[in-house]
Amino acid sequence: MQFAFLGSGSRGNALLVEHNQTCLMLDNGFSTRETVTRLGFLQQAPDAIDAILVTHEHSDHIAGVGVYARRYQVPVWMTPGTYEAARHRLGDIPTLNFFDPGNSFSIQNLDITPIPLRHDARQPCQFVIGDGQYRFAVLTDTGSSSAEIESLISGCDALALECNHDQKMLQNSDYPKSLKQRVAGQMGHLDNDSAADILRSIDCSRLQYFVAAHLSEKNNMPTLVRDTLSSATGWAEETIQIASQDRVSPWRTLSRVF
Ligand SMILES: [Zn+2]
Ligand SMILES: [Zn+2]
């Protein structure tokens, strides 16, 4: 299994996960033209995406889903709640599949375990994606963690974890008070310290890749993320990768033989 970020952050998210000719796109918050440009950096043909898996209805995750699905005839998967909240913005989806946040399911040869969570959306989920050998957990757009969430992501082989903001930068920002409360609240986004707490709680012994994701461009900095996480875990700072809003990441391949 391999994965690559097309981009991550409040101006658009999309992530590819590929295994044995099955290529999933997790969310698409970019225009189709932008998506195709970004896929080009990965030598990925736009019509070779097998499914789009949607986490929730916020625009930075779905803005590009409808047009892309129609143009390239890609099946789309989401919860019924996400569809209800997003249907007017999505338009017609040629092949629409619903999943239940409480049950695992498969898309071709990838196994998908939804992670239900708290975020200001109708029925949001993040995912653990498995290929039978390795598990890749993605956890962004969540206001808080829980024992259930941590048990689902514990022991994974790769982890993309939200490090949305630094609490002090957010409080000192020019955001209106209501927006500060929404971002920092239980239904908002994970800050650097909360991400560090999660890493201290879960089993990281199999981790081959760690990616800090969905960083705020106004209220966070990669150096703060690396400082906070590295002091919490003892990891060398250079092992902490940061998903960029503007740059496509290289493919990361899970390959360690135990
Ligand atoms: Zn988001
Ligand atoms: Zn969101």
Tally of discrete structural domains: 1
Structural class by secondary-structure content = alpha/beta
The named CATH superfamily = Ribonuclease Z/Hydroxyacylglutathione hydrolase-like
Q: Can you list the strand order of the major beta sheet?
A: 6-5-4-3-2-1-14
Under CATH at level 1, the class stands as: Alpha Beta
Order of helices and strands: EEEHEHHEHEEEEEHEHHHEHEE
What CATH calls the topology is Metallo-beta-lactamase, Chain A
**Taking Cα atoms only, what radius of gyration do you get, to the nearest Å?**
17 Å
Strand content: 15-25%
Q: Assembly state here?
A: single chain
Helical content (DSSP H or I, runs of 4+): 25-40%
Instruction: State the separation between the terminal residues, measured CA to CA.
Output: 16 Å
- The total count of strands amounts to 14
Q: List bound small molecules.
A: zinc ion
Count of alpha and pi helical runs: 9
Main sheet: strands, sense, barrel: 7 strands, mixed
